[in-house]
Write a structure and sequence with these properties.
14 helices
Length: 241
């Protein structure tokens, strides 16, 4: 009977359109209020204790950083730099999407922020150059997977806090797999673009590449500053964010 009430309240809230997190919380609180002799103030204290972590503060700060970078034009500078370097290759814009996603992921640690910031620029650009809309969206969706892997990864921070592992070690553990996955995705994208006949855009110019690099230099150096500071002990992941 007790479990039936718990599950019943959860599904009723779910079908009423209440977000899943709130449905889980409210059904559990109602269950404890009805069937357990637990003071309600203890529930609030335990909920607060679960998020009372200095390390967890890194998550909203990295998300805010991603929003500021997107609204401030940093993501556009990263895209422009990637375009001047690899945009002339077969499937150049698709490669630019992957490379820019890797760089942006290394600054924000969030897959959703990476997809939104880079995709908002690259998907329309790819469609204008004759790329299929579905393929352009798929390339950007794949580019979003670098957020949880390449440090500073929000998921790595969460896992480190929950398991008690070193957050710095967790971030370092995702670096090599993230870069290796980027190479694999780039190779697959090039192969697919050659098959589909998608050409590069423009020609490579060392002068233009140098200028775009100088425009985006601080954005490109941000991952090095963040990770270098963490691993050298100058600051914590939260202070880095």
């Amino acid at each position: 009977m007790n479990i039936a009430v718990l599950m019943g309240v959860f599904f009723v809230l779910l079908f009423l359109g209440v977000p899943i997190a709130y449905s889980l919380c409210l059904s559990a609180v109602l269950y404890m209020a009805l069937f357990m002799d637990v003071p309600m103030i203890i529930i609030g204290q335990q909920m607060l204790k679960g998020v009372d972590s200095f390390t967890l503060m890194a998550i909203p700060f990295f998300v805010i950083a991603g929003g500021l970078m997107e609204s401030g034009g940093i993501s556009k500078r990263i895209v422009n730099f990637a375009r001047t370097v690899v945009g002339h290759l077969p499937g150049g814009l698709a490669i630019v999407t992957v490379v820019a996603s890797m760089i942006f992921a290394a600054m924000t640690g969030a897959g959703a922020a990476t997809t939104a910031a880079v995709g908002g620029i690259m998907i329309p650009s790819m469609q204008e150059e004759g790329y299929d809309g579905g393929y352009a969206s798929a390339v950007q969706a794949v580019g979003g997977i670098f957020g949880p892997l390449i440090p500073p990864s929000i998921l790595m921070v969460l896992y480190g806090v929950a398991s008690g592992e070193s957050v710095g070690d967790m971030l370092l553990a995702g670096l090599v797999p993230g870069l290796f996955l980027g190479v694999i995705v780039t190779a697959v994208v090039v192969w697919q673009c050659i098959k589909k006949g998608y050409k590069g855009v423009g020609h490579f110019s060392l002068k233009r590449a140098a200028k775009s690099f100088l425009d985006a230099i601080w954005a490109i150096l941000a991952p090095a500053i963040i990770l270098g500071g963490i691993y050298s002990g100058l600051f914590t992941p939260t202070e880095a964010s």
